Amino acid sequence: MHRVVVTGLGPVTSIGIGAAAFLEGQHQAKSGIRAITRFDASDFTTRIAGEVDVDVEAYVERKEARRLDRFVQFALIGTMLALADAGLGEDDVRGEHTGTCIGSGVGGLWSWEQQSLIRAERGAMRMSPFFIPSVIANMASGHVAMRFGLTGPSSTVVTACASASGAIIDAMRIIQRGEADLMLTGGAEAPITPMGIGGFAVMKALSTRNDDPEGASRPFAASRDGFVAGEGAGILVLESYEHASARGARIYAEVLGGATSADAHHITAPAPGGGGAVRCINWALRDARVDRERVGYVNAHGTSTPANDLNETLAFKAVWGSSAEVPPVSSTKSMTGHLLGAAGGVEGIATVQALHYGVLPPTRNLHDPDPELDLDFIPHTAREQRVDVAVSTNFAFGGQNAAVVFGRV
Question: 0.85 exceeded by the pTM?
Fold first, then answer.
C-alpha cells in the first residue's frame, strides 16, 4: 500500500486566495464575513456571508467562465493554484496517472435559480442549454479533468458538509491502491444565493448578527447563534510518496488515514452526545494506525451552532477520555464562514499548514466561552506549537460524518 502525501494547496476563501494569503489570513485571525453583495438581501433575516472577491477572468477565459456555475469556477481556480503551488505544469499531470475527486454539497445553486426564473418568466424553451451541465455536482471534477487532460480515476462525493473530507479520503484510497500517482481533491461550493441563504435562514440555522459581521461566526462561544455561510474552494494535490520524492517535490504533510460514519438519527440534528462523531474519529485514528495520544491538534467542524458545538465537544471528550486529554482545538469557520461541501477542503488545507509551519490557527470571536465547552479552543491568537499528528473533522446534515488524519513529514 502506497503512502500518500500532500504537495500542493489551492485555497479560494474570503480571507485569502492562494496558500500564502490564506495562511496569513489565519495567522492574523482575519474575518472574511461582510454584508452580502451577490444579491439584495435587505428583506432576509440574515444579510451577511463570507463572499470571495476574485477576478475569475484572470484564471478562466471569459466565454468559458460565462458557461460555468460559480462553484465550478472556484474549483478550477483552486486547482490552478494547487498545481502551481506543487510545482506542476499541465504536461506533468496530463494522462491516466492523474485523477480527480472533488466534493460539493449543493452544486450549481446559482445557475439553478437563474434558470428557474427564466423558465417562469419566459418559458422552458428559453432556458440555457448549459443549464444541466452547470448545476450537477460532478462538474467540478469533470471540468478540472477536461481542462487539464486528466484521464485517471474521477468521481465526486456529495455528503453535504462532509463532502470535501470524504473526497480527500477517497482520493487517498485511490493512491494507496496504486490506481493513480496523483489526485486533485477537496471541495468547491457557491451557496450564497437567495435560495441558499433563504433556505438556511428559515431553518433558523444562520446567525442573525447582521450589525456585527466580523463577530457573527463565534464557534464554541456561549453567545453563538448560528453559522455564517461562506463560499470558495479548497483543492489539494495528493501524490504517492514515491512519485513526489522522485520529482523532488516539497511535501507539506502525509495523509495517514480517514473514515466516515453515519449517525442514523435525524435529517439535521446531530446524534445526542456525538456518538456518530466518536465512531468516525476512532475509526480514522485506527485507519491511520495512530494512538489518540499522538494527536496534537484538531481542526473542528465548529459551525457556531448550539447543537453542533456542544455535541462535537462531547465527542472529543469521549474519544480522548476527558477535557484535559483533548488536544488543542480550533474552528477556522470563525474566519471563513461555513463553506458547506467545500469546508473539509479548506479546513484540510489549514490543518496541513498547521503541521507544516508549526502554527495552530485560532478560533476568532471566542470572547465568552460556553462553560459547558471546556476545551482549549486556541482563542483569538494563532499559537506557535509543533505537532506531529492533526485531525480535521466534518459533520453533515443527514448525520454523515468524516474525519481525516494528517501527519507531519
Answer: yes
